[in-house]
């Protein structure tokens, strides 16, 4: 074989190799996925949990998962016998305090006043007799007929009767005046304290009947009828379907200058249509969140941000968990 033929064969082989590489490159160019990078989020909804301040046993659940409830609807009833017992105790204490306060306000009974008056009159009579006896003994002593000892004994009896009369008079005055103002104030304070205890227990009794604080849909019911629930334990969750938004995890190189108040378009597969959304919340998800190195040597990392946005128009039938898709970077409109 001549050198010229060998040269032509080598040339043909090189050309063939180049053609094969080119064809493979064209096939790859046209067949490989050239779609834009997408950002996928989902629909979230505000939820509140229904729970009781007091422990009790589930007596009745009046709704089921999926029911729509209105504000003020009764959701569940608990049985709490301990609370009812405390209510009876508090009311008994309030009745006793009210009786003490009434007694302090009304003062002594009529019979007590009459008895105190009779004792005072008796003491006055005894004082009058003791005074006359002393004066008589004093005259006899002055005449030299009575001894000094007898005179002193009569004087001591007179002074004792005088003190007894004053004591009886003070008892009568106290019965007429009634309790002191400080005692009346203390009795009234006891009544208010007992009434406060009743109000506290009444608030606990109201907690045994769980009422919906807002409209929404029952999403989860946790305990069964007959089960015990503790203080603050959730009984059910209710989704407020009127407050929905989309949540997206966006790398900072895809934010494209997005800020709170901006609007963008997201695609809803469930409705097969685009939805206009307005950003109301942007927050760094922290070092624990997903990140991406810009280069293999990791010169710096791209953080991920949580972006929340609400639809500008109400979407009938939108449910929590539905997907929302942003193609490429987030573009403010």
Your description of this structure?
It is a single chain. The radius of gyration is 48 Å and the shape is rod-shaped. Strands 1, 3, 6, 8, 9, 10, 13 and 14 form an 8-stranded antiparallel sheet that branches. A 4-stranded antiparallel sheet has the order 5-4-2-7, with no helix packed on it. It has a two-stranded antiparallel sheet with strand order 11-12. The protein has 6 helices and 14 strands. The chain is of the alpha+beta class and 333 residues long. The chain is 44% helix and 28% strand. It has helices at residues 3-31, 81-106, 110-142, 148-177, 181-206, 252-255; strands spanning 38-51, 56-61, 68-69, 74-79, 209-211, 216-221, 228-229, 234-251, 263-268, 273-284, 292-293, 301-302, 304-311, 323-327.
Keywords:
4-stranded antiparallel sheet, alpha+beta, 333 residues, 6 helices
Give Rg in angstroms: 48 Å
First and last CA, distance: 72 Å
SSE order: HEEEEHHHHEEEEHEEEEEE
The secondary-structure class comes to alpha+beta
Helix content: 40-55%
The proportion of residues in beta strands is 25-35%
Low-confidence stretches: none
Number of helices: 6
Number of strand segments: 14
Largest sheet features: 8 strands, antiparallel
Q: Mean pLDDT, rounded to whole units?
A: 79
Anisotropy-based shape: rod-shaped
Short synopsis of the structure:
The protein is an alpha+beta fold and 333 residues long.
């Amino acid at each position: 074989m001549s050198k010229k033929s060998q040269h032509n064969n080598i040339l043909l082989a090189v050309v063939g190799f180049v053609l094969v590489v080119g064809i493979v490159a064209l096939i790859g160019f046209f067949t490989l996925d050239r779609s834009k990078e997408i950002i996928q989020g989902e629909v979230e909804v505000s939820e509140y949990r229904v729970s009781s301040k007091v422990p009790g046993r589930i007596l009745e659940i009046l709704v089921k998962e999926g029911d729509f409830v209105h504000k003020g609807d009764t959701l569940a009833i608990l049985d709490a016998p301990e609370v009812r017992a405390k209510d009876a105790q508090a009311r008994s204490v309030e009745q006793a305090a009210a009786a003490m306060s009434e007694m302090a306000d009304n003062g002594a009974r009529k019979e007590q006043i009459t008895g105190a008056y009779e004792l005072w009159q008796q003491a006055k009579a005894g004082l009058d007799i003791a005074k006359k006896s002393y004066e008589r003994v004093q005259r006899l002593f002055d005449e030299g007929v009575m001894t000094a000892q007898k005179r002193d004994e009569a004087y001591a009896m007179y002074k004792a009767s005088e003190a007894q009369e004053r004591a009886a008079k003070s008892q009568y005055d106290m019965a007429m005046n009634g309790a002191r103002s400080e005692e009346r104030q203390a009795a009234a304070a006891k009544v208010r304290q007992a009434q406060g205890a009743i109000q506290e227990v009444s608030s606990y009794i109201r907690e045994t009947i769980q009422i919906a604080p807002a409209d929404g849909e029952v999403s989860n019911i946790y305990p069964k009828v007959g089960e015990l629930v503790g203080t603050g334990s959730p009984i059910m969750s209710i989704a407020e379907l009127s407050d929905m938004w989309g949540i997206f995890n966006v790398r900072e190189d895809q934010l494209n200058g997005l800020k709170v108040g901006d609007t963008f378009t997201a695609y809803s597969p469930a409705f097969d249509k685009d939805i206009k959304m307005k950003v109301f919340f942007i927050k760094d998800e922290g070092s624990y969140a997903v990140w991406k190195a810009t280069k293999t040597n990791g010169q710096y990392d791209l953080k991920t941000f949580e972006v929340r946005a609400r639809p500008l128009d109400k979407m009938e039938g939108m449910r929590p968990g539905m997907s929302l898709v942003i193609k490429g970077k987030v573009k403010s409109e």
